[in-house]
Write a structure and sequence with these properties.
The protein is mainly α. The protein has eleven helices and no strands.
Length: 215
């Protein structure tokens, strides 16, 4: 029992240490030696627990998304009993919180950004288990806003979803610029909520505009 606990603790430290290193350096530049040093385990531990650096990275991606999902659950956005405007706001708020988290969970946003720019083979596992379900949620919300009178194609719904996601991603990708020009817009949780509200209202206005053009 005690041996299993030690085993689990070492594995958890490896995941946390690897998450930090991969977020800082990316998969290719990170080394097994510095990951083990960060986790305070011996250099053979990656092979022992995960068999390879590639397998460790795949596990880290899923670990990061799992942690982010536990801290920022999307239950409110999925609650179909809520007004659709609220559901969209909670989706945007949740996404921004994940991207802008400055705690150790902020590694999630950096890993996500790295995978968008330079995807690895491990990304496919996360796409199926974490990314695609959240995309489907946003598609569902968009469909409810547009209503049955609008028959948008699958590609149109992708374009609309990407435009909403893009408004969120700019706050991560342009973080260095924002920090130097207008840091107040994401200074704390209240300001992040105001930013989420603005993105929501802007997106709803665009969606409603589509309804007017296609009565």
């Amino acid at each position: 029992m005690q041996e299993q606990a030690v085993h689990d603790q070492a594995r958890e430290r490896l995941l946390s240490g690897a998450l930090a290193i991969f977020a800082e350096k990316g998969f290719r530049e990170a080394t097994v030696r510095e990951i083990c040093a960060r986790a305070d385990v011996n250099a053979a531990s990656v092979n022992y627990y995960f068999r390879s650096k590639e397998a460790l990275y795949a596990e880290v991606l899923e670990f990061a998304y799992r942690q982010a999902g536990e801290r920022y659950p999307d239950d409110k956005a999925r609650d179909s009993s809520r007004p659709v405007e609220e559901r969209l706001f909670y989706f945007v708020q949740n996404f921004l919180q994940r991207l802008l988290d400055d705690t150790h969970l902020g590694h999630h946003g950096r890993l996500f950004a790295r995978e968008i720019a330079d995807p690895s083979n491990a990304w496919n596992r996360v796409l199926d288990t974490s990314v695609k379900p959240r995309c489907a949620l946003l598609h569902d919300i968009i469909g409810v806003v547009l209503g049955p009178t609008i028959t948008e194609t699958e590609l149109d719904r992708h374009r609309i979803a990407l435009s909403i996601v893009g408004q969120c991603l700019v706050y991560h990708h342009s973080r260095s610029l924002i920090d130097r020009t207008c840091p107040e817009v994401i200074a704390d949780n209240d300001e992040i909520d105001r930013t989420a509200r603005l993105i929501t209202e802007f997106s709803l206005a665009g969606l409603r505009g589509l309804k007017v053009e296609n009565p």
